[in-house]
Design a protein that fits this description.
5 helices; globular; Glucose Oxidase, domain 1; 10 strands; two-stranded antiparallel sheet; 7-stranded mixed beta barrel; about 10% helix; alpha/beta
């Protein structure tokens, strides 16, 4: 069974404040040109996407510097829908599961606010103590159904600066995470192979094991 974890890319979707909105325009049509083709314009952090270390750290790895298997592996979803913040004491209850996986996806319920103004409301985020504890595990990435691993008011992006230097990548704007609670699955979150990419949209999906 496959669960799609990706928001569709189209005009007028939610983007981080200050980011250009994606544009998809008809470039060619079958009637006029004999073939159909869309022209698209968007940034590398549009829709469901993954952050590279080079997104935050000068000279750090871009996505194309990682092997494909960096973006595939066993995962779990942690239900944080009733949390105001994601703290170490709560995460510690998942220690045994975290020891056996490579991806943690955090379900906050914000996927249901996608494409509404409420998507920018305060969402649960990891505390510094929780992030530092997670760095002790062999994780490839953390994923979220919200717009960032950091709170909107955190202009210095502290969680980005803790995770990305350790090459724990960040997947943002995921969806359908509630369908994976309590399930074992393999996550696939493959970015486009863009040279020197600081980030990329992904087609993220889970294969139930």
């Amino acid at each position: 069974m496959i669960i799609d974890l990706t928001h569709p890319l189209k005009d007028n979707i939610t983007v981080y404040p200050g980011t250009i909105k994606p544009r998809f325009e008809v470039g060619n049509t079958i009637e006029k040109d004999g073939f159909a083709e869309l022209n698209m314009s968007m940034c590398t952090h549009t829709g469901t996407h993954i952050d590279a270390p080079s997104h935050i750290i000068k000279g750090a790895k871009s996505l194309d510097a990682f092997p494909v298997d960096k973006f595939i592996g066993r995962g779990i979803v942690i239900d944080c829908v009733k949390k105001k913040s994601i703290e170490l004491d709560y995460l510690a209850t998942y220690t045994d599961k975290i020891n056996s996986i490579e991806f943690i996806l955090f379900y906050t319920g914000w996927q249901n606010k996608w494409n509404t103004p409420n998507y920018f409301d305060p969402f649960p985020t990891l505390t510094t103590e929780a992030v530092q504890w997670l760095l002790k595990f062999k994780l490839k990435a953390l994923g979220f159904d919200a717009i960032s691993v950091d709170a909107m008011q955190e202009e210095t992006l502290p969680n980005h600066h803790l995770l990305l230097p350790k090459e724990v990548l960040i997947i943002e704007n995921m969806t359908n995470l509630d369908q994976l609670i309590g399930k074992e699955f393999e996550l696939n979150c493959i970015p486009l192979l863009i040279s020197a990419a600081d980030g990329s949209p992904v087609r993220a999906f889970a294969r139930i094991l």
